Amino acid sequence: MNEKIQVISKYALQGLDVQSLNDAALAAKQVLESGSGEGNDFLGWLHLPSSIDEPQLQAIEKCAAQLRQECEYVITIGIGGSYLGAKAVIEALSDHFAAYKSANGPKVVFAGNNIGEDYLYDLMDLVRGHKFGIIVISKSGTTTEPAIAFRLFKEMLEQQEGKEFAQRNIIAVTDARRGALRGLATQEGYATFVIPDDVGGRFSVLTPVGLLPIAVAGFDIRSLVAGAVEMEQDGDEPVLNYAIARNALYQDGKKIEILANFTPRLHFLAEWWKQLYGESEGKDHKGIFPASVDFTTDLHSMGQMIQDGERTIFETVISVGDQQHEVIIPNDDDDLDGLNYIAGKNVDYVNKMAELGTRLAHVDGGVPNLIITIPAVNERFIGQLIYFFEKACGVSGYMLGVNPFNQPGVEAYKKNMFALLEKPGHEEATKAIKEKLKQ
Length: 439
Ligand code: PA5
Prior knowledge:
Helix 4 (84-93) runs parallel beside helix 9 (208-216). The chain starts with 5 loop residues before the first strand and ends with a helix. The chain is an alpha/beta fold. It is built from 17 helices and 10 strands. The mean pLDDT is 96. It has 2 domains: 6-38 and 225-400, Glucose-6-phosphate isomerase like protein, domain 1 (Rossmann fold); 48-222, Rossmann fold, CATH 3.40.50.10490. Strand 2, helix 4 (84-93) and strand 3 (107-111) form a beta-alpha-beta unit. Strands 1-10-9-7-8 form a 5-stranded mixed β-sheet, with helices on both faces. The structure holds 5-phosphoarabinonic acid (PA5). Residues 79-82, 138-140, 143, 146, 200-202, 279, 407 line the site of 5-phosphoarabinonic acid (PA5).
């Protein structure tokens, strides 16, 4: 078994001149590694895995152990980069039906990643009468969605379990100095973890932003980090292959990249990836639109569009080597469903044939197919995948000619929302937006 993820581009690049992009990719990698490009004050993730030391890991594990001991639920509050990494890793590593099974430790649930009133109501209903803890994560410390959720659950926890329990079981992950959450945590005496200044939200999963909730969920953060270190130290080949291939395809008119998996546990990994690439590359009216599908489920919904729709897409398949468990399809004497031809095979064999069949069909249909192989879904290989995607994103963004490390466009909706909510300090904008709405 190959012990590292690989990128296979032979089904994607037929007829394309990738030679000319090799130099551009090497130049972009050099700009990234030398810190000479735009956004170079946000490169703390580049050598983050190898810089995580024993005291940092121990502090996270100790805090996680305390929450695991005292809480039935741990509500992880955050949005965007302060949510998706933890959610992706926990979902990838968890039993698919963990929510319905009793577990040896708290259930990690998420809030502050939307403003759904019923969502919050239902979550409050879930934790009412149960001991729960809160990990509140916000780099800026001022984001509205997590701030609302935190206000609600902080008050609920204090009323339900008392101030002392709440103080012990609320953990803040935020900036070292700035922001409302830092001030609040100091005032209330909460334990805190720091998000480094030079690590942006979508690159922060290997900081306490991701590591703490992942450890609380019971997973091995040391293996996760070790996997990322492997790619940090020896991952340039797949990184360059991926960055070159997607830029070659973009230049050839493929404006949409669909990240596909045949492994249901990877659904949220794709959500994390969409943020990573969407926020990094969607600038200056450029960028590959990142989309995702779960196969074979979505072959029965999006399959037609991919096979026969507008030819502006390419597909990147995360192809997983081994499943964790084996399920054999039984023989049936009557064979009324006609399935005896695959009796005795394991389910993953059928899935692999679906994967191969889909690739052949999509390539025939004009959808270039990139493959990222991952030997298995476990902490180590998810760690590899995270760092691989992060570094390839930096290289790819520089090849595209954008600053991959800012996200100015995210502010536009916030300005309007604050104006509409009549937030103090936004009076002019409120007046302007009211005028606009009258037109
Ligand atoms: O990647 C990013 O920078 C964003 O998605 C942020 O993570 C998100 O907006 C949440 O910000 P904050 O952590 O400041 O609450």
